[in-house]
Amino acid sequence: MRKRLLAGLFFAAFLLYNGSAARAETARAAILIEAETGRILYEKNAHEPLPMASTTKVMTALVALENASLSDTVTAGKNAFGVPGTSIYLSEGEQLSMEEMLYGLLLCSGNDAAVAIAEHVAGSVDAFCRLMTEKAAQIGCENTVFSTPHGLPAQNHHTTAYDLALITRAAMENPVFRQIVSTQRASIPWAGHTQMRILNNKNSLLATYEGALGVKTGFTRAAGRCLCFAAERDGMTVIGCVLNAPNWFQDAA
To answer: I want to staple 53 with a disulfide (CB 3.0 to 4.6 A). Which of 34, 61, 119, 253 is the partner?
Structure first.
């Protein structure tokens, strides 16, 4: 009974996230797990490899947090400048701390921040993606390969709902990650402007779903609507992941 109730809460949360009368069961794949034990509470096509749009950035942040200091100065190179899709509008040569870049990555889903972070940590996007894939294998993912740090469409870039739940679970064990994804609004410097960059979290569940802890939204036409979600109810934390839900929005994650 409790498992069915929690699954129902998960689907209610996804319904709120989409702002639509459609239900989460329309997604290609979905899973709900208990965070503490990893016990599966609900699953649908949970081991089918699929693209994951900007939920990719959960692993981007985790690898960065484990391989760099929050106080590191991260420079946006020519590859980070002008990356398509969602952006925090970094200018070439602009510098932010790693912590500020992570807020831009996870709140506003900055694709430019993802590239800047990747190049800072590993020297190149390709090398960073190898670190991401290796980390996924270390935590038990068997069907996950990363080809980008941001999740824009790319060959051989995929995960499963189950693997993504494992990744999200591992990331939520990091207190800095957990703090960032639960933040609704933040500000960071903006070179060449008198005002600060205002970062509003794209995850509306933080404001609409009781007990929501984050984590990350995502969308591309290829991946559909994707979501990593964590919430706490009655002393129990659950993690839910949805891949390839119907496409109601037109922006790239």
So the answer is: 253
